[in-house]
Amino acid sequence: MPRLPDLHQQYLQACQSLSRPKNPFIACMLQEADKHDKTKWTKGITLKIAGNNHVVPVQRVTDEDLQALVAVLQNTIFVTGLDLRYNVLTDDGAKHMAKFLQENSTLRYLNLMFNDIGTSGAELIASALQRNETLLHLRMTGNKIGNKGGMYFASMLQINSVLEKLDLGDCDLGTQSLIAIATVLTPHESVKAINLNRPLLHSQVEETTVHIALMLKTNSSLVELHLRKHEMKKFGVERLCEALYENCSLRYLDLSCNKITRDDVKILADLLKRNQTLQILDLNSNRIEDIGAIYLSEALALCNRTLQALAVASNNISSKGLIALSDSMKTNMELSYIYIWGNNFDEATCMAFSELIRSGRLKPRCTDVEPYEVDGHVHLAEVSHGLRKHYYWTPSWAKDKDKHANASLALGAVSEY
């Protein structure tokens, strides 16, 4: 087997030819990559050049650094993933990335999360992806591309038939771009997961949710949908549930941080009684209270046998609702993951979940609480488990794909690349 190119040496040569100083962080990561020849030839590698390393401070990647880096990677067939989150890339850096995406034929995963890319950069990247035929997963999370930038990505989706996972969460999308994306996804066959978290909406009539629901009625490829912080209320929940009675593909629905109340959850509970597709339901940080929890527990105990994970953390649920959920797990053997931290625990609640864990019905790593005893009384402590605990950041002692902190990946709705 011939020796693979030396990425570190090529990077130094690229910096020299561009008359720019090297970035020691990039140089170090390329040196590490050079040590794994066998991996490069078989599975390919992901270069992790994330700028949020607080344990060992690093020099974040700039637009000029990116130009030298992509010059090295342009003809490298074994680099299939590039993680550039939390750096200081701007629209100028997006020019280099767009050129790279147009010419590269091996990159499958690109993470540009929380850089400084704006509308112009979004236009360049979206335009490049119209011709790119290899990229499967793109994270633009946290780049303030705005409503106009969202429209560029909607136009891209009309042409691109390869991209499977697109994350536009926290990108300041507006009503127009959300409607455009929903409209484009209606007949789309390649996108399997999309994140539309935290748009900037200035209306209370939930027209964006209406269009997303219309898309779900006919889309047969989408399996993961994130609608966090959409100001969703009863009307929006009704429209989504009406669509999901007809949808046979969606397995992961994220409605966390909305305005869903106990009465609205009854609509979701009725859906669960008939739906045979949903596997993960995230209702964290709403206000379903005891009555809402009881609605869910009745559906899970009597009818539903497909839901595997339920998140109801921070929902103002007290003993009555939490005990009802714990009781539902005694008859429903499919529900394996449940997250309840941030609600109102009393000793009866603590005893109920302690017994579930002690009996083996609920695995300790499948929930976000852990029982402990003080002076003969059982209490619950929080543990760092959840559906997507490592969505924004990964602690130094953990792995990106820790299945206990990121249960949604373990359940396999749409795996990370």
Automatic annotation (TrEMBL):
<dbReference type="InterPro" id="IPR001611">
    <property type="entry name" value="Leu-rich_rpt"/>
</dbReference>
<keyword id="KW-0677">Repeat</keyword>
<dbReference type="InterPro" id="IPR032675">
    <property type="entry name" value="LRR_dom_sf"/>
</dbReference>
<dbReference type="Pfam" id="PF13516">
    <property type="entry name" value="LRR_6"/>
</dbReference>
<dbReference type="InterPro" id="IPR052201">
    <property type="entry name" value="LRR-containing_regulator"/>
</dbReference>
<protein>
    <submittedName>
        <fullName>LRC34 protein</fullName>
    </submittedName>
</protein>
